[in-house]
Amino acid sequence: MLAGAATLAGALGVALHYTGWSAEPLVLATSGSPYLMIGAIVGAVGFAATRQWVATGVAVVVAAVGVATQAPLYIAGAGGDGHPITVMQANLLFDGADPSALVEAVRSRDVAVLTVNELTRAAVTALGAAGLDQLLPYRYLAPGQTASGTGIWSRYPLSDTVEYDGYVLNQISATATVPEVGPVSVYAFHPVPPVYDTDVWADELSRLDAVLRRSPADRPVIVGGDFNATYDHTRFRAMASGRFADAAEQAGAGHLVTYPTDKRLPPLVGIDHVLLAGAHATSVETVALPGADHNALVARIILE
């Protein structure tokens, strides 16, 4: 019975990965798809131990399909030559994140472009006092109350700044002029979490995808954000398709869990991402950010 239940859990994980059901419990369960898929492996072992060979075969097939859904995260893609820079994405938990820790992470990792979510005016002041504006002197910010604020800091001059209307939280973009490369489109996104309203969540992801599809095709694009969606959500994978790719998948970085970091359990899901077009990632890592409830992401990328 336990082997059967474990195999059904694995099958559910696979189904959630592919189907994109919109009911809130299923959207939330999709975040845990990789954990559910492990059930099929447990089921195969259990059935094999009791010599139930047909059931073992079924469990093995489910497990194999589950592994196939996750394998792309562990296989690095090939990339060309170009200009290397480092990008960082951080959710600040309003003004909870330690500003000195964030600034030290930017300094020690030679970050050139930083995107932030949940940026308050108090956090802007604290980050400036900690020295962020000296490291990244150009910025475009849309701070707000609690979770609504979003920002971009850059080593390179920013122009063509845009704040997109019609979203619950602030969504922004700018153009960074990178020496030896030219204009690079930079987006900082933060769609609402599905617990706010799954229909709004799905609509915002769809409309943000459309924003990216309208980005200039003749230049690289960097997108940092708390997407409130994991690799297993079909709507996120739709965004990371075509000319866009998930930096972690490109680098073969595996499952990078970023949330939550303020609980007794370790972080369980990866909802922070860097998307790229006209660029490829050579490495992506998580960075602890004291006082926040997310790990930050640091991606070393090549602008092609």
From TrEMBL:
<dbReference type="InterPro" id="IPR036691">
    <property type="entry name" value="Endo/exonu/phosph_ase_sf"/>
</dbReference>
<feature type="domain" description="Endonuclease/exonuclease/phosphatase">
    <location>
        <begin position="88"/>
        <end position="292"/>
    </location>
</feature>
<dbReference type="InterPro" id="IPR005135">
    <property type="entry name" value="Endo/exonuclease/phosphatase"/>
</dbReference>
<protein>
    <recommendedName>
        <fullName>Endonuclease/exonuclease/phosphatase domain-containing protein</fullName>
    </recommendedName>
</protein>
<dbReference type="Pfam" id="PF03372">
    <property type="entry name" value="Exo_endo_phos"/>
</dbReference>
<feature type="transmembrane region" description="Helical">
    <location>
        <begin position="25"/>
        <end position="47"/>
    </location>
</feature>
<keyword id="KW-1133">Transmembrane helix</keyword>
<feature type="transmembrane region" description="Helical">
    <location>
        <begin position="54"/>
        <end position="75"/>
    </location>
</feature>
<keyword id="KW-0472">Membrane</keyword>
<keyword id="KW-0812">Transmembrane</keyword>
